[in-house]
Predict the 3D structure of the following.
Amino acid sequence: MKLLLIEDEVSLSDALAYLLRKNGYLVDTAYDGITGGEMAETDAYDILIIDRMLPKKEGTQMIKELRHSGIKTPALILTARDSIDDRVEGLDAGADDYLIKPFSTQELLARIRALSRRYIDNSDGENLTAGNAIFKPLHKEIVIDSKIIRLTLKETQILEVLFRNKMNVLTRDQIINKVWGLDSDVEMNIVEIYIHNLRKKLMPEKCHFTIETVRGIGYMLKEGNDV
């Protein structure tokens, strides 16, 4: 599971990121509302953990803008503001949960587990389409004319990034950052290998979309032709 932590207090951010990674999560970090919002807009995260009082853009405003643009990623607000009005404002902005500082690490982890269960429960119908294909990220499969093609976890994650950015060019760096994380040290050609495997799986079927190579830049999922 991949988390985005947006917290401007660097020492706290570092401590939380360490804790979350130690508990098996992939974690990207941002330190202000504008950067965090841009990263969250990629829709490549399972949960957003957002400090309310952020520089450049306040946390609840960022969540409100994400919801307006159709980003449904579960969001947990961290804040020292604990009045009922503050909580109502945060939840009305589109946050899914609210955790008051200071908090115990055990409670933070429990809240994340609860949000992840809620996300899975609500994601059964969230399928993506391109051409005549129905892509089901939760089930790691793509359905083309009633034929089910099984995918590995990384194939699923890469294809989801391409589907969610349909008709837009993504660089190899962008794909690596979204799938493996900003701090990953994987080789650049790993993306090429997975794209090759995806094309090989999809080629026998008439899916009416292509994963195109944009020379010198990266890849784009384009509707209209077969792989």
